[in-house]
Structure formats: C-alpha cells, structure tokens
Amino acid sequence: MFYREAGQFKTSYQDDMAVFPIRQDRIGVAIILAAACAIPPFLDNFVVGTVLVPFLVFSLAAVGLNLLTGYTGLLSLGTGAFMGVGAYACYKLTTIFPGVNILVWILVSGFFAAAIGVVFGLPSLRIKGFYLAVATLAAQFFLEWCFVRIPWLFNYNISGAIEVPNRSLFGIPVVGPNATPLTRYYAILAIVVALTWIASNIVRGRIGRMWMAVRDMDIAAELMGIRLLRAKLLAFAVSSYFCGVAGAVMMFLWYGGGEAKDAFSINLSFTILFMVIIGGLGSLTGAFFGAALLHLVPIFLKFGLPALGFPIGGATAEHLTHIIIGALIVFFLIVEPHGLARLWATAKQKLRLWPFPY
Amino acid sequence: MLYNVFVDPFVQMADMPDLLVQVLWEGTVAGVLYALIALGFVLIFKASGVFNFAQGIMVVFAALTLVGLHEKGVPALLALAITVGVMYALAWSIERVVLRPLVNQPDIILFMATFGITYLIIGLGEFIFGGRPKAMITDQLFLPRGAIDVHMLGGRVTFQKLDIAAAVIAGLMVLLLAVFFQKTRIGRALRAVADSHKAALSVGISLNQIWVVVWFTAGLVALVTGIMWGARSDVSFGLQIIALKALPVLILGGFTSVPGAIIGGLIIGIGEKMGEFYWGPLVGGGIESWLAYLIALIFLLFRPQGLFGDKIIERI
After folding, report:
1. Using CA atoms in the order A173, A178, A183, A184, what is the torsion angle rounded to 10 degrees?
2. Is residue A192 within 8 Å of A62, Cβ to Cβ?
3. Which of A212, A299, A315, B117 has its Cα between 20 and 30 A from that of B269?
4. Secondary structure of residue A9 in the 3-state scheme
C-alpha cells in the first residue's frame, strides 16, 4: 500500500542507475542507518560488544567474499587467512609507525591482504570450481603456518599473540583495553558503511559487469574482449582487500588482541562462505542477512533461551546450536536455494501489490 | 642453503636406507587412509555430482556409533551390524530430506547443503555420544596389535601390525568396490548414472534408489575408514580434519576417478611424510599441514582436471 513506486519518474540515466531507485528504499536505508547510529548508546555494553560488533565484522568479510564468489564465481576457502594477513599487517604497521592514526592503518592493511590474495589467485586462471576451492585451501593452511612460524609477524612475543596497543582518535580511545565497546562499534560502523557503499558502486559499474560476465561463462566473456587475467585477479585483490580490512577490524576492534592462529582458522573461512551462500550469492544485502542469521542464532541459543526461561547448559546449548544451524541451512536451501536475499526480494515484490492479490 | 635443499636430504636418504624405508612405509599407510576418505568423496561425486563435504564427519559418526554402542554393552560384532544399519538409515534420510528437494540445483547449493548435513551430524553425534574422545575397540574387532621389526639394509624397520591390516583391508575394499561396479546389476546402474543422469533415467534406472545406494556405500567406506583411523589415534571429532586432507588427494586424482583416489592418496601420503622428514627441519617443521596442498596445486597447474579426471570440455 505504501511501498509503491507509482509517480516516481526516472527522468535521467543517472536516476535509472541509482543504487536505490525507489524512494521508499532510500527512506528505509536512511532509517536503518539512523537507527544504527542512534540506538546503540541505549543498549547494554554486552549487547553492543557481542552482538553488533561481530555482526558488522562478519558482514564486511561476507561482502568481501561475495565480490569474489557471488559476483565473479570464484570459490574461495582462504578467507580466514586473508583476514589474518590484514590483522598482522595492521599490527606490524601500528607498532612500526605508532604515530599514525589506527583507522588509517586498518584501511591500509587491506592492501597487504590484496597483494597476498592476488598471488594465491593466480591458479584461478587455470582451474575452476571445486578444484579452485581446494587450491585456495593451500593459501589458508600455508598462511596459517606462517602466522605461527614467523615470529617477526607477532614481534617476537613469547605468547605468539597480537597485543593490541592503546590508540586514540580525537582524544577518545578507539583501540586497546581502554576503548569502550560503543566507540569501537562506531568506528566499525563507519568503516563498514563506507566500504559497503564502495562495493555497491563497484558491482554495478563496469568492473562489476565484467565480473558477472566472467561468472556466467568465462570463455564467452573472454571472446567478448574481457581480459580474464585482469578481471579475475582484480576480483581476488578487491575481495582480499575487504577481507583484510575485516580481519584487522576483527582483531583490533572486536577481539582486542589474542592468539590469531585460532581466530583465523579454516573454520572462519567456512563460516564466511556459509554466510555468503545462505545470504545469497551475488547480493550485498544478502551478505548482511547471512551474517545476521549465522551469527545471531547461536547467540540467541546461548544467551537468549536461558533468559527466556529455557534452562539449557553450556554443552547442550552448543550441540543444539550445531543441530539447529545445520537444519536451518538445509531448510533455507530447500525453501529458497538463492538465499535470503531472494526471499527478501520476493517479499518486497509481494509488498508492492499488497493488499491486492495481483 | 642450496646444499641443504637439494643435496643434503638425498645424502641422508642414501646414508640411512632403513630410515628411508620407514618413512616411505609411514607415507604409504597415511596415503592409503587418505585414499579411503577420498574414495567416499569420489563415489558420491561420480553418481550424483554432489561434492560431499560431510564425508569426513560421516567417518567420525560411523566410528562413534560403533564405539558408543559397544560402550552401552552391545557385543562388538552386533554393534558393527547395527552401525551398518545406522549408515543405511542416514543415507536414506539424506536422500529423502535433502537431496530430493534439491534436485537440479547448482552444484554450489548442493555443496552447501552437505555443510548443513555436516553441522547436523556433528550436533547429533555430540548430543548422543558426548564430545569426549573414545578409544576404538581394536581387540573386539579382531584387529592385530603390536609391531613387527624387520632387520634390513643395515638397520631396523618397524611395521605396525595395525598399519599392515589397514593397508590390506583398504586393498580388499577397493577390490570389492571394483567388482561391485563392474559385475553387479546395481553397480552397472551406478556407472550409467555417473555417465549421464538423463540417459540413465530414460532407460528406467531410478535415480533416487541409486543415490541411496551410493550414499550407503560411501557410509560403509566411512565406517571402515573410521575404524582404521580410530584404531590409530582416538575416535574424536578432531578426526574430521583429516577429511580436509583428502581434498588435495581428490584434486590430484581427479574428482571422478576411483584409481585416481588411490594413486593420489599414495602420492600425497608419501610426498607429505618425505617432505616433513627431510625438508621440514629447514623451515622449522610442521609443513605437513600445507605441503599436500602445494603438491596438488603444482600438479593442477599442468593438469587442471587432476591425473585421472574426466577431461574438462567447455562449450559456449
């Protein structure tokens, strides 16, 4: 009734190509952004720290992987390692140049991940599909090994962990033990919004169309004059950049230090891939949906159910989480193999006609 | 440095041939076990085109069911029979609940669905049998223990009896599967489905039935693998990591080739152990975790479909 674009005329090409061509969508996004800025100060620190912050980090990584897997059709299982590269690069940079603002280094560390990503993306020119997925596992395990065996990366700490130093912005501690979850949340929010905006502009422009042509059939794309070498490596670079930034953010703004070996393991790679597929391949909104589903359901089972009066112990909760997540993955795939984003699109289509049947 | 990489390891090999034999044997055994897991993948991929990520957890689940039943007081052989039944039930329910609604979907969706199955089985297994590692019931299943020392090449080489048994059983298993595929009615139907789903359907082969059979066969392979791996270490959920080790074996041998899985397994197993033993110390050890992938990657650059895989033909 109210979600209808009647009367909104597109009078220029620019209008037609806008990210949100429908006014209601623009209003909706503005409301979501405003809520994301305005509501957290009234929330518990615990909620901000364990629900919102990880959700944003996962979303960013899922957006990054979606550029590679969803838009370019290259399956990668090295996401966790690329995130690790970002985290370690950020750590080295901020210890070598402590004077520079940490947010700058978080954004710069993505370039290191991009470089590594390009190197491990080279096999994608020769091999495809699941073969490529296994090839990227080489990146995962090799980089994981590097994180443990090269002490220079963690500044010869005895613990082998990344120790997050105190860094502040405009006098407010953003990173380190003194930073409150709220400031960290705002820092992440700014990064995620900025990068998602960039991503949405990349994928609907020339580069994005090039990637999608490669995804749909790379030989045909090559015949049409798309250089596969450049397209695929660019996809690896951009995707790894996003993942690297997500990794740096994860280590510095969420974990606040710790043993990166466990944090950037193969499980993280799989989790991010789940988020992308469950959310919807080739959809940036889907990346957020996927991250929300796979991150919030376990948290709800762990903390929400006891709070609602269903007493379940720690171990049982974990087993139940596995069962429920597994069942949910299968359920959503059967209901809508194209992911939550497609469900959302269908719902919007229905809303457009509501309350009439057609 | 160059000497350390290119000369010294070979000097070591020549100096101590007994040690070389030992390393080769260890590699062979590891390779056979990798090959067994890879076999489970290949069976399912050939027949249904599904890249079954759940194979690793099926290995754990089968072994866990066996040991768990025995702990509850069921005699070992009866427990074995019940476990076989459980694997059949698992295959049937996977086909009915997951595969049938998802027929004709893109590969990646089916791949993702097997992730869902993995989670489900992990949760179920932990729920029923608990998360603690268990010891495999080696003696009750008449598996030999102890070791044979052979004096050869001026030294002593130790062969674990269990490893010999594993190699023999794996060999038998492959032989049985080969006979099953070549000679029986169902085996032929399986090969027909592997060649072309549509053609198989048109001559009256029931895809659903074939899928149950294939998943059940993969479950049996998983059970044997689980017993063998469980006997060598413990039965725990950590075992599913070895499923990842089977992936380089798969791409090396090709997703669609049974002999490829065996030969790929041996190449990876031996290459990994040799690399770790002779070249590992140069870079601080622990290279076993990624060396297999590197070997597979190098092979892939020359043969993108693996050693024995079907040739990839692309049409526009």
Report:
1. 110
2. no
3. B117
4. coil
Across the range B96-102, mean pLDDT stands at 85
Interface test with B, best of A293, A333, A335 (most B CBs within 10 A): A333
From the list A145, A325, A326, the residue facing B286 with the nearest CB is A145
Q: Which is nearest to B308 in space by CA: B254, B266, B263?
A: B254
Buried residues in B79-105 as b, exposed as e (16+ CB within 10 A): bbeebbebbbebbeebbebbbeebeeb
Instruction: Tell me the C-alpha distance between B66 and B79, whole Å.
Output: 6
The reported pTM is: 0.87
Cα–Cα distance, B157 to B160 (Å, whole number)? 10
> CA A354 to CA A227: how far, in whole Å?
46
* In contact, A70 and A128? CB cutoff 8 Å: no
Per DSSP, helices labelled H in B72-206 are: 76-93, 107-129, 161-183, 185-195, 197-202
Q: What is the mean pLDDT of each run of 10 residues along chain A (358 residues)?
A: 75 79 82 86 82 91 93 89 91 84 88 92 81 83 84 74 72 72 87 93 91 90 91 94 92 73 82 88 89 85 71 71 84 84 86 78
Structure tokens at A340: 């939550």
Dihedral Cα A258, A262, A263, A266, nearest 10 deg: 170
Enter the DSSP assignment of B12.
H
Interface of B with A in 229-248 (CB under 8 A): 244, 247-248
Q: Provide the residue ranges of all domains of chain B, joining segments of one domain with +.
A: 2-302
- Which residues 251-280 of B are in CB contact (within 8 Å) with A? 251, 255
Output the six-digit token pair for A31: 């409301």
Is residue A169 within a helix (H) or strand (E), and if so which, with residue range? strand A167-169
CA pair distance A230, A125, nearest whole angstrom? 10
- CA separation for the pair A160, A181 (Å, rounded): 25
Distance, in Å, from the CA atom of A54 to the CA atom of A44, rounded to the nearest integer, reads 15
Question: How does pLDDT run across B191-245, given as a tens digit for each residue?
Answer: 888 777 788 888 888 888 888 888 998 899 888 888 888 877 777 777 777 777 7
CA distance A317 to B123: 10
Fold of domain B2-302 = ABC transporter involved in vitamin B12 uptake, BtuC (1.10.3470)
Nearest to A285 by CA among A20, A3, A9: A20
